[in-house]
Amino acid sequence: MPERVYIREKGESFVDLTLAQAMELQDLGFCRVTPTSTAGRWRITDVLKVGVAVASGCELHVVPKTPLENIVLMASLGGVQLRLGADDVGHGSDNSIPTAIARALLIAVEQATRRGLLKGYRSVQESAAVVRGRWDISRQLAKRPGIPLPVEIEFDDFTEDIDENRILLTALRVLARLDGIADVLGSAFTAVQILFADVESLPRGRPLPDVRPNRLNQHYTVPLRLARVILEAVSWTHRDGATVGGTFLVDMAMVFEGYIANRLRANLAEIGLDVTAQDRGRWFDVDRSVALRPDIVISRDGAPVTVADTKYKVLGSGNGAMPNGDVYQAVAYALALDVPTAHLIYVSGDVVARVLQIPSAGIDVHVHALPLEGNARALEHGVATLGAKLVHSRQ
User: Fold this and answer.
1) Are residues 366 and 344 in the same domain?
2) CB-based contacts of 145: which residues, under 8 Å, 6+ apart?
3) Quick one: pLDDT band at residue 377, thresholds 50, 70, 90?
4) Same domain, 285 and 345
5) d(CA 213, CA 98)
6) Same domain, 101 and 125
7) Residue where a domain terminates, one of 45, 63, 81
8) CA separation (Å) from 138 to 125, 152, 153?
9) Which domain holds residue 289?
10) pLDDT value at position 86?
11) Boundary of a domain, candidates 63, 95, 111
12) Torsion of the alpha carbons at 254, 97, 220 and 205, rounded to the nearest 10
């Protein structure tokens, strides 16, 4: 049984590690590891992810500043279909982040596949004795010029082996390899994998397929979101850098950003506003040499109303002030979009909510502190209140 060490997401932690363990932890790139004056004692700060990191037989569990229930809620797109309470995430002896998100995925997949797996058309290329679909003449000539059989054909197959199911199966199989996950979740975890018997896993080291939401796959929204969080947590799509077995690290900045954008999109649609996340079509200069990528752009009938950036970060000063660079960035966004307000969305406890008036630019920067420490209902209420503040500030 590997040794367990607990470190905090916020602030600093001091742990006893060997040099090899400290180097492996530093190589994972989610925190800063520095030596202290005591041999074998290390200082860990600037933690960017939460979960479990394995280094030479030592398990380092990052204790998040956000309740486990709310992490699962945010990871599942705000619980549009999935509502997990404290009893669900805390069931059993292991209530770690990997286990909680694994349980959330299991429940979401079970809900989404009650009537069977989603099916769709997928282009298939194969060699056959008879023509079915389209005869691929160029491939025929390239593979066997002058030989009539077998025939190279291409056709659309109505199958369960589609991108949506491949993403879910890959996430389930990744979880099954993590120590203890299958044991904690029991037979239901095995049963749901059997459901995907005719589906292939995705290869490691390649970007995940770009699955766009539509009328047919909308019931897959929650499990697909969780699956992507899981595959990112184990660096499934990363080509560079070794991933230590058992390491499961969730990027809370990505989860927080996605959650805020999706809940604002749902809430503000009711009053005729559109929310664009990670807007790539913005530039600061006429020549388009300085690209801007605001986290959230709120528009009405295509015209920007205001702009916002999410900032899930641990600030070290402790005086409630935000970094100057964040304010400069917000002002740049507002100028580029020609809107009078910009918003910076932090986690409560990191900054003090306030309004910064920038008279020379004619822009107000609103600083928000969203509380994450309450239960899921309080979190949802906080985001709804935030949405109202974003659109009712001075326009």
Assistant:
1) yes
2) none
3) confident
4) yes
5) 26
6) no
7) 63
8) 13, 9, 10
9) 254-392
10) 47
11) 63
12) 60
Q: Are residues 179 and 238 in the same domain?
A: yes
Q: What are phi and psi of 312, to 5 degrees?
A: -85, 95
φ, ψ for residue 141, nearest 5 deg: -70, -35
Q: Hey, what amino acid is at 55?
A: A
Residue 53 carries which side chain, given as an amino acid letter? Answer: A
> What value, to the nearest 5°, has the Cα angle with vertex 36 and ends 34 and 40?
95
Identify which of 135, 167, 138, 165 has the alpha carbon closest to the alpha carbon of residue 150: 135
The candidate with the shortest Cα–Cα distance to 169, out of 202, 212, 191, is 202
Query: 69 and 53 in one domain?
Result: no
First to last CA, the chain: 58
Which residue(s) pair with 44 in the sheet? Answer: 13, 33
Same domain, 208 and 319: no
Lookup: tokens for 257: 């950003």
Q: Are 361 and 307 in contact (CB under 8 A)?
A: no
Q: Which H or E run includes 245? A: none
Contact 124, 152 (CB under 8 A): no
Query: If you count them, how many residues does the chain have?
Result: 395
Whether 168 shows a pLDDT value over 70: the answer reads yes
Structure-token pair, residue 345: 């969305």
Do 217 and 352 share a domain, yes or no? no
Show the tokens assigned to 4. 């367990």
Percent of the chain beyond pLDDT 90?
A: 49
Alpha carbon of 386 to those of 185, 260, 267: distances in Å? 36, 9, 10
Residue position matching structure tokens 């459901």: 195
Number of domains in the chain: 4
Residues 110 and 126 in one domain: no
Q: What are the two backbone dihedrals, phi and then psi, of residue 165, each rounded to the nearest 5 degrees?
A: -70, -30
